Amino acid sequence: MQNDLLSTLKDIGLEPKEADIYLSVLKLGKASITDIAKVSEIKRTTVYEYVNKLVKDGLFHKTAQGKRLIYVAEDPSKLIRLLEHKRKKAASILQDLQDIYATASHKPHIKLYEGIEGIHSIYDEIANTSHTVYSTFSAEKLFSVFAEKDAEEFQATIYNKGGQLKELIENNP
Predict the structure, then answer these.
(1) pLDDT digits (tens, 9 = 90+) for 158-170
(2) 106 falls within a domain
């Protein structure tokens, strides 16, 4: 059971030594640095570093008992609050991370589109570029989906954003 708990604590983001210290203090109820070091079998100097992080994360609180500092574990439900806090922090930067991801030039962009709406989506995405767009198409099929006005708007949007069109058009009536 101890190994399962340690493993799960590591899976949710606690470092291995941090998880050992957390479980040790939970078992002891309250403990000094020396007590924690003995039970967790981690060097006392290392215990200080992790205990302070656990206090900062709200999983422990410290109190004075005479001249000694004693550490007390908070209710384990605080783990959920800590994870929620981390989730909210990650969510707050998600859009910025996605923007960076979207501009990475080293990764291929492959998407699947279906139907007329898919074709419209492709053209909307292409129109918002400042790069050169290479395309091959049948004018007959293009104008079965788009009005001539839409095609001219598409072309104007690309040029206005600094892009270029290089087209190979099927020869048909």
Answers:
(1) 888 888 888 888 8
(2) no
128 burial via Cβ count (<10 Å: 0-12, 13-18, 19+): exposed
DSSP secondary structure string for all residues of 130-149: SSEEEEEE-HHHHHHHS-HH
Are 21 and 51 in contact, with CB atoms under 8 Å apart?
Answer: yes
Confirm whether 31 is domain-assigned.
Answer: yes
> Could you read off the pLDDT of 33-62 as tens digits, one per residue?
999 999 999 999 999 999 999 999 999 999
What's the domain count of the chain? Answer: 2
- pTM (2 d.p.): 0.56
Tell me which residue of 51, 43, 61 sits closest to 19, measured CA to CA: 51
**Could you tell me if 24 and 31 are in contact, meaning their C-beta atoms sit under 8 angstroms apart?**
yes
Q: Which domain holds residue 48?
A: 2-77
Nearest to 135 by CA among 119, 149, 117: 119
Q: Which stretch, 6-20, 127-141, 155-169, has highest mean pLDDT?
A: 6-20
CATH code, 61: 1.10.10.10
For residue 92, is it within any domain? no
